[in-house]
Description:
20% helix; Dihydrofolate Reductase, subunit A; binds NADP nicotinamide-adenine-dinucleotide phosphate; 7-stranded parallel sheet; 6 helices; single chain; alpha/beta
Amino acid sequence: MPHLASVADLDELIEYYRTPPAGVRANMIFSADGAAAFAGRAGPLSTPLDQALLRGLRGFADVVLVGAGTVRAERYGPVRVDGMSHGWSPGRPIPPIAVVSLSGVLPDTLFADPAQRPILVTTRRAADEHGLAPDDRRDVLIAGEGTVDVADVVSQFRDRGLSRVLCEGGPTLLDELVAADVVDEICVTLSPTLAGVQDIGRGGGGLASPRAMQLDHVLSHSDYLYLKYSRRR
Ligand SMILES: NC(=O)c1ccc[n+]([C@@H]2O[C@H](COP(=O)([O-])OP(=O)(O)OC[C@H]3O[C@@H](n4cnc5c(N)ncnc54)[C@H](OP(=O)(O)O)[C@@H]3O)[C@@H](O)[C@H]2O)c1
């Protein structure tokens, strides 16, 4: 039977996530109508507890895998240990951020800590065309010729001892992982909002902010979750 419970805070919530698979765990938030972002960012859909969960899940991972679109949109930095208090302990390596990219165009924020080199995950062709070689700032992992072979990425991570992969999106990278059938677990936060159609990676949509909705119930049957949201009364 799945657990149905209400949780008060991160301490209670994180207990349900303590055993990641030795493979790919994906973590995503979606609006109740299925959008993964609002005006180009996931933040308007999120809440402090969801943000704390996102950081907390990193404590149970060996590597954080993310698409370059997300790294650019969310201006990713290195993993911070203060968000991982539940799963990580000093002495264990801090999980590196591994970014899938053909362009190699990544924000400076990602290189803020020289002690934490990100891993650029790319193809042989892109590495040759854009001169994407390992250096002081970044490691480079080559997987595939013209497009990144994400199954090979997971396999190469395993060979490096990074078997617990936490994928934080975005939707494009998640699609690739799903198509390669390498997603072992997906953690979904359903946001009580309506966001409308969103052009992922750009601004857009007719609303000034997501429409807040009220959760009426959470019911589970045969692995399906039945949620009902209504306009706030
Ligand atoms: N709702 C959520 O939980 C969530 C999570 C993360 C992000 N987001 C939102 O999603 C949006 C970004 O998502 P997105 O789908 O546009 O971007 P994305 O999946 O983060 O990144 C797409 C980029 O990753 C690279 N890439 C991905 N798969 C590849 C492959 N197999 N081979 C080669 N390159 C590959 C390419 O980078 P290059 O262009 O550098 O070549 C591509 O442009 C942002 O608005 C962000 O806020 C939401």
